[in-house]
Design brief:
This protein is an all-alpha fold. It contains twelve helices and no strands.
Amino acid sequence: MVEKKSDTSHLYDGKTVRSSAPSRKKAAGRMTGSSEIPKDAIPEVHVPSMIESLFGGPIVSKTKFLPPDRVVQTLQMTAAIILTLLSVVTFTVTPVSGTAWFWLSDVINQPAIGALFHILLIAMGFIGGMYGIFQREQRAILISYIILILVTIRFAGSKVEFGIDLLPDGEIAQKLLLISYALLLVMYIELTSGIIRFSMLDKSIRTGEVYVMNVKKITSQYYRSLMITPLVAGFVALITLMINLIIPFIVGLLGSDSTAKRLEESVELTSVYGVALGTAVVFMIVASAFAVNLPARLAQMRENSSK
C-alpha cells in the first residue's frame, strides 16, 4: 500500500514565510511598555544617624547568627551566672548615696525616688544583659555594660560604703568584696564578647567561609585563659589595695616593730597615695617579669610540655 502524504500547505495560507528572524529594530519600535524603574533595580540607601556620622559608622554592627553550638551555649550559661553574681554584688557594694539621682531626690526631698531609681538601673542592666546573652544582641549587651558601670560612679565622697548593712565592717572584707566586683565585671565583659566572637567563628566554619583546624584546641586554650586571667588580675588588685598592710608586714619582718605599727596607722597608706604606691609596686613586678622575658619562657615551657 502506498501511504498518503499529509498536506500542510493550508497552514501557511495568507502568511509570509521568512527564512530569518524578524528585525529587532522594528520590534523595538512597535513595543510599548512602562517607563517606571523596576523596584529591584533601585539600590538600598542607608542614611547614617548622627552617632554613626560622628564615629564614622555603626558603633555595634547587627549580625545574624546560626543556632548556637555547644561552645557558645556553655559561654552563654557561664555569662548568665556571672551576670547574676555581678548584679547581686553591684547592689551590695554600691549604695545610692553619692550618685546624681540621690542628689536629685535629696533636692526634691524624696529619698525613696533615688533608691527606687538605683534599684531600677541595676535591674535594667541585669535584664538587658540576659537578653543580649541569649539573643546574642550586641546593642543590649553594650547598654548593660554602660548601666552596670554608671551605677557605680560616685559624684560625692570617697569613703568606702556598701548598699546594705549586713556585711562585715573589716577593711580586708571590704576590699575583697570590691575586688570580686571588679573581677566579675571584667569576666562578664570577656564572656559576652567571647559569645559574639565564637558565634561569628562558628558561622564562618559552618557556612564554609573559612576552614579552621583543631577547633577543640582553640576552645580549650580559651577556657584555660578564662581561669588563669581572673587569678592573675585578682592577685594584682589584691597587692594594689593591700599595700597598707603589706608594707608594715615586711617592715615588721625586718625587725622594726614600732615602725611597722606607725605604718599601719599611717593615713597616707590608706588613702589614694597608698593605692598609687601599690600600683607602682605592681608595675615594678610586671616590668621585672618582662625584663627576664618570663612570658616567652612560659610559652616555651607549655610548648615543650604539649610535645
